[in-house]
Amino acid sequence: MARLLTYNVHRCVGTDGRLDVGRVADVIAAQAPDIVALQELDVGRARTGHVHQAEALAQRLGMAFHFHAALRVEAELYGDAILTARPEHLIKAGPLPGRPGQPWLEPRGALWVAVEIDGIELQVINTHLGLVPREQRDQAKALAGPEWLGAPQRRDPVMLVGDFNATALSGVYRTLSAGLTEARRLSPQGGRVPTFPAPAPVLAIDHVFVSAGVVVEAVRTPGDPLSRRASDHRPLVVDFRPHRP
């Protein structure tokens, strides 16, 4: 069995307003994941002390990492990462569509990495969608289309994970569920497993969508005091077994 954790870390600023990379690392380490997908990481930004947060977290966790900058402001970067101590390689990183005529919307992207789990290559795509419904729908269609999930290099098993800013009632969810299955629906325990806001979550907007070839064993989110405070989201943890479909 393997374990994936997806976590919007809110640039490592917690619900108490405190910046602390170390406690985010502690939240992750407590779950002992094999694969970590992170959103909202700062790299070299003045507001968070010019730290490369993806690298700092990877070092603390003893993992390799790939980082994709969805937003670039001169030398300052902001984006998403995949971390793992398993054998891995990068497949692709790139932008997702925004809305023409709305340049003030935050740029979004996706990061695609292959990770070897028990001799099986598992493909993981990590993303963070926008906040505007029409923008979200365009981004979901792009992920489901020929540049990402429909690309020639896509091989099952595959997991599409991240902060989708969308619930199970959204068009985003319906678009992505047409080709993949959300892990909560496959979990033997069932339940919504909300992740936001961290102190008392009511919204399930962080998701793990899986293809054939991924057997979901459990889906949960930790409820300890540190997980309620380290970020504005709680991590979503999925235990699974990959196999060749």
Count of beta strands = 12
The average pLDDT value, as a whole number, equals 96
Residue windows where pLDDT falls under 50 for at least 5 positions = none
Give the CATH superfamily: Endonuclease/exonuclease/phosphatase
Reported CATH architecture: 4-Layer Sandwich
CATH class: Alpha Beta
Q: In whole angstroms, how far apart are the ends?
A: 16 Å
DSSP strand content: 35-45%
Largest sheet: 6 strands, mixed
Please name the defining characteristics of this protein.
single chain, 245 residues, alpha+beta, Deoxyribonuclease I, Chain A, 6-stranded mixed sheet, 19% helix, 37% strand, globular
Q: What is this structure, in a nutshell?
A:
The chain is α+β, with helices and mostly antiparallel strands and 245 residues long. It is built from six helices and twelve strands. Helix 1 (21-30) packs across helix 2.
Structural notes for this entry:
This protein has 245 residues and is of the alpha+beta class. The chain has one domain (2-242): 4-Layer Sandwich (Deoxyribonuclease I, Chain A). Helices cover 19% and strands 37% of the residues. The protein is built from 6 helices and 12 strands. The protein has helices at residues 21-30, 53-61, 133-144, 171-177, 183-186, 225-229, and strands at residues 2-8, 35-43, 64-73, 76-84, 88-96, 108-117, 120-128, 158-163, 181-182, 206-210, 214-220, 236-242. Strands 3-4-2-1-12-11 form a 6-stranded mixed β-sheet. It has a 6-stranded mixed β-sheet with strand order 5-6-7-8-10-9. A hairpin with a 2-residue loop joins strand 6 and strand 7. Helix 1 (21-30) packs across helix 2 (53-61) and helix 3 (133-144) runs parallel beside helix 4. The longest helix is centred in the middle third of the chain and has 12 residues, at 133-144. The mean pLDDT is 96.
